[in-house]
Design brief:
2 copies of one chain form a homodimer. The first copy, chain A, is of the alpha/beta class. Chain A folds into 3 domains: 9-52, 434 Repressor (Amino-terminal Domain) (Orthogonal Bundle); 62-157 and 292-324, Response regulator (Rossmann fold), CATH 3.40.50; 160-291, Response regulator (Rossmann fold). Helix content of chain A is 42%, strand content 14%. Chain A has 12 helices and 11 strands. In chain A, the strands form 3 sheets. The first copy, chain A, has a 6-stranded parallel beta sheet with strand order 2-1-3-4-5-10, sandwiched between helices. In chain A, strands 6-7-8 form a 3-stranded parallel beta sheet. The relative contact order of chain A is 0.13. Strand 2 of chain A pairs antiparallel with strand 2 of chain B, so a sheet runs across the interface. Chain A binds a DNA duplex through residues 8-10, 18-22, 24-25, 27-28, 32-34, 37, 52-53, 55-62. Chains A, B: GO terms for molecular function: DNA binding. Chains A, B: It holds the Pfam family Peripla_BP_3. Chains A, B: It comes from Isoptericola hypogeus. Chains A, B: This is LacI family DNA-binding transcriptional regulator. Chains A, B: Keywords: DNA-binding, Transcription, Transcription regulation.
DNA sequence: GTGCGTGATGTAACCGGTTACATCAAGCCG
DNA sequence: CGGCTTGATGTAACCGGTTACATCACGCAC
């Protein structure tokens, strides 16, 4: 055995008086080893405390046993849950998970490139990497895009547009609101953008004009608070506000009452994502439930499946689009009774 | 070049008409290459689109360029922020981050073992892995324990006990509350436990008995809601409730007013962690700010530093204890004016 | 007894890098 | 001119596994 460090196949081979091939056969449970030999080798393995090096295995199999996930960062419950979905599938398959947060850094492409070189497959949140770049990379390895559409890549997403349309339609038809606005910047990633489009779809369906452009803010609660103050100061509250996510809605709900405006009395509000706090806020928040965990899990499953067995090539995934169901969760903040 | 896949050093060597050693010298920017040769090799590298394989590099240097982080899961903002701290340090160093969620699975030890084999160093959240096991593993590689104490391992933590004592003392001295209870199960990980101990320290300082044992619940908002209902049903609200984290406090704050009990009028409440929603809730939540991101970043820095340069051995870290500052954030929920 | 099939095991190449050491040519000096 | 130094480059071993193929002993059939 090397002076320091773990024993290798060759150490075991020497110790048991066999060849490395035989040791390898034992560790891989290859049946073509005579029982007495097997026992002798196993004894040496136990005696020296040998476990095959992950590096050696990776080298031989050309498999990293690692799945990469690329997202903007881990801020907010959405991404955390997504990662949990990916992670749960990965651990069951004995695969490690490499997390890369791009934080919209300019050199994110290079980081993704690097990550791609140490993983068997990639799960990428939409909007975090250039699509051309990903499409090229997808020639080499399985890549699954989450929460985005693409005609060149495999995507897993929810139909945020349809969901936004559904919940907006509820505001229009069940409550008769006519002056509606959208909170959240639709210029960034695919998710907020499609939600905004669904919001506009519903308005268009009813021949109603938007009561003002989207309120372009980031996606954290503080921005919701800022938006609430701005709306209040303008003296011109819409009938209802559709928020790009629940955090924004919480920010508004926490601020508006303090300014003397009640929810949903003076303005109704709906969120998106069904945050774990949504059912506890007062009023309880009407929102859209997304199977975020499933989104991650499904993406991971597709990616790992395409990775295939050690022998096989890592298949490039054909373009495909898997759409998971959303569900409008009607609570009180839209104006419905408890 | 192999029929499929990326070119290797040997492909470049053949293409440029030099040896692999020279190619290696060029990629590593070794100055001992004559300029004309360097240019010729570089031209081949560009022509074939060569980048050194991460696997080959790992094998040669015995470094994975990967940092592992072990935690129960990614539920709640605390862990997400911790990972972000780790991740930010890692990407700056060109190091990948491997996340392992144990979810308190019985076979977590084996997963950690595996993770340890594919990483250069480990950051472990306290309570997720057996300390004996970690101590042994720490002979082999740098391990940093987060949010825990140990006399055998390097730890990075905040003094949750002192912080809990401080905020509890505020409840006792500034407001004169006498009947205090703690919400959250102190039987699990080190963090909740030390918070509970600090809570009891403050009571002991003032010669006051706990108004009832700790309310043993999990750490999500729903449990806070359950606890609120239980307290209300018992008809015996304490003067003040110290919660193991902010989510629990949110759960209580969302539920109690609906039962006709006001906060802080009928019962004061304080949380822990300074969640991003804490300043927005109504009343705003008095809590303890923890430098969670810094916790992760510091742990990662220590771990990576111990990993050392490619040549050097991965040093086992000597036992050490780094304590980061907490800060009580006094808001309204304890009874203080806005 | 010879030839052949079969099962167990060993040998050596391979995966993709790095690097100690060998080699070699050129320049310099006495 | 011979020997030494120096700088550039090549050779081959090594990191730790797997595996195609070779080898060998044994048993069986003819």
């Amino acid at each position: 055995m090397a002076a320091s460090g773990r024993p290798t196949v060759r150490d075991i081979a020497k110790h048991a008086g066999v060849s490395v091939a035989t040791v390898s056969r034992v560790t891989r449970q290859d049946p073509k080893v005579a029982p007495p030999t097997r026992e002798r080798v196993q004894a040496s393995i136990d005696a020296l405390g040998y476990t095959p090096s992950a590096l050696g295995l990776s080298l031989a199999y050309q498999r990293y046993h690692t799945l990469g996930i690329v997202l903007p960062g881990l801020g907010g419950p959405y991404f955390a849950e997504l990662v949990q979905g990916v992670e749960s599938v990965a651990v069951d398959a004995g695969i490690a998970v490499n997390v890369l947060g791009t934080h919209f850094r300019p050199d994110a492409g290079r980081s993704v490139q690097q990550l791609a070189q140490r993983t068997d497959a990639l799960v990428v949140q939409g909007g975090t990497a250039d699509e051309d770049f990903l499409a090229e990379l997808a020639q080499t390895m399985p890549i699954v895009l989450v929460a985005a559409t693409s005609d060149r890549l495999t995507t897993v997403r929810t139909d945020g547009r349809a969901a936004a349309r559904e919940v907006t339609t509820h505001l229009l038809e069940a409550h008769g609101y006519r002056r509606l606005r959208f909170l959240g910047s639709p210029n960034g990633s695919p998710d907020p953008t499609s939600r905004y489009l669904g919001f506009r779809d519903a308005l268009a369906d009813h021949g109603i004009a938007e009561a003002g452009g989207p309120l372009e803010y980031g996606f954290e609660a503080e921005y919701g608070a800022m938006a609430a103050r701005e709306l209040h100061a303008s003296g011109d509250l819409p009938d209802a506000l559709v928020c790009a996510n629940d955090e924004l809605a919480f920010g508004v709900m926490a601020t508006l009452p303090g300014l003397g405006r009640s929810i949903p009395g003076d303005m109704a509000i709906v969120g998106f994502d069904d945050n774990s706090l949504a059912g506890l806020a007062s009023p309880t928040l009407t929102t859209v439930h997304q199977p975020t965990f499933e989104l991650g899990a499904t993406a991971a499953r597709i990616a790992l499946e395409a990775t295939g067995e050690p022998g096989a090539a890592r298949l490039p995934l054909p373009p495909d689009d898997r759409v998971l169901e959303t569900r409008a969760v009607i609570r009180e903040s839209c104006g419905c009774p408890a």
